[in-house]
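Supplementary Methods. Inverse-folding protocol.

Structures were first reduced to a discrete structure-token string of length 347. This string, shown here, constituted the complete conditioning input.
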């Protein structure tokens, strides 16, 4: 079969993304971000994000089609993030997908944002060996999943019981006076610091926690420990060593994420770990995962940083897997579901 040409639309948070793929090949990845409009609030403001999606949708669509050198009439299907995410932001993408699908007479697939974060790796590394374990680490989610087949529903192995990994980066960055979103500036600051300078806690790794939470994560204790440490310094009138705090915090997060992900691979007899979501762009996470996996003969697949953060190509990549597997399209009245379960790949 000729690989399907699929256009993907992503609007679940603050990036308006339109991607175009042919099977496993990326043809266009147009992204317009409203992140600068949210920076002064220290987090994404839903109404601001929705309005920015409305404004960016048509120009981003034109840019993607022109980058790929295709017309809307050429595509085999339109995929769109149906959830999870911000309700108003999702609505803009879903409404746009329906409008384009109706106008161009194309099938539409409403897909799960989190499964798309996993599927995007196929654009860089080709078909995903199955089964694989996926470590999904974004601003809103941190989960371990068993993926048997990208076009079918996934099996959750564990997830965060409090903050998401990206949320922890964003909150710690704020404590350190670094800009939003906090992942990239912490990643940079950490390069100047010593990861062993401060011993921060590793959530849910003590023997007593493993029985009930072997594959779950917790980052709120770590965030509190960083806050206490920084406050103590400030109270003592001493300067805060931003590089050391960033490096020690980042090390604690990456240590737990990689240890639990590799434990899941070994427990399930799986030899491929795929990492996705914005935090997968973190340089230390990528290096530590690869280094530790090598000891067990496990292969780590992480897409390049630009494909880790939100974009439309990931939605198109998942859409292409669904079309190729012969999965039926969604109904044209498909809903935007802000709380779409992790286990549902498409609606
Ligand atoms: O997947 P994503 O773009 O959006 C969501 O679906 O949430 O993830 C955004 C998150 C933010 O919390 C951001 O701080 C984090 O990914 N992030 C990083 C890095 N780049 C982005 N975290 C750590 N290191 C990075 N280099
Ligand atoms: Zn995301």
């Amino acid at each position: 079969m000729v690989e399907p040409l699929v256009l993907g639309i992503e609007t679940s948070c603050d990036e308006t993304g339109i991607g175009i793929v042919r099977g496993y090949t990326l043809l266009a990845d147009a992204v317009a971000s409203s992140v600068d409009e949210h920076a002064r609030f220290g987090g994404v403001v839903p109404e601001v994000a929705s309005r920015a999606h409305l404004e960016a949708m048509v120009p981003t669509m034109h840019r993607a089609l022109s980058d790929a050198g295709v017309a809307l009439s050429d595509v085999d299907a339109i995929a769109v993030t149906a959830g999870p995410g911000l309700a108003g932001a999702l609505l803009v993408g879903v409404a746009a997908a329906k409008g384009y699908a109706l106008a161009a007479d194309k099938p539409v697939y409403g897909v799960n944002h989190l499964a798309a974060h996993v599927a995007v790796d196929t654009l860089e590394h080709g078909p995903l060996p199955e089964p694989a374990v996926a470590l999904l680490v974004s601003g809103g989610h941190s989960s371990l999943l068993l993926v048997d087949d990208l076009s079918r529903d996934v099996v959750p192995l564990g997830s965060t019981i409090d903050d998401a990994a990206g949320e922890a980066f964003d909150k710690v960055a704020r404590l350190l006076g670094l800009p939003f979103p906090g992942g990239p500036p912490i990643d940079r600051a950490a390069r100047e610091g010593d990861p062993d300078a401060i011993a921060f806690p590793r959530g849910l790794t003590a023997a007593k926690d493993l029985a009930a939470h072997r594959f779950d994560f917790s980052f709120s204790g770590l965030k509190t420990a960083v806050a206490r440490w920084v406050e103590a310094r400030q109270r003592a009138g001493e300067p805060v060593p931003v590089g050391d705090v960033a490096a020690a915090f980042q090390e604690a997060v990456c240590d737990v994420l990689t240890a639990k992900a590799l434990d899941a691979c070994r427990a399930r007899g799986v030899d491929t770990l795929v990492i996705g979501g914005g935090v997968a762009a973190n340089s230390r996470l990528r290096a530590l995962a690869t280094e530790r996996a090598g000891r067990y003969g496990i292969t780590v697949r992480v897409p390049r940083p630009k494909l880790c953060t939100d974009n439309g190509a990931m939605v198109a990549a998942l859409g292409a897997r669904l079309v190729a597997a012969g999965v039926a399209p969604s109904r044209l009245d498909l809903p935007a579901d802000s709380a779409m379960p992790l286990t549902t790949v498409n609606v």
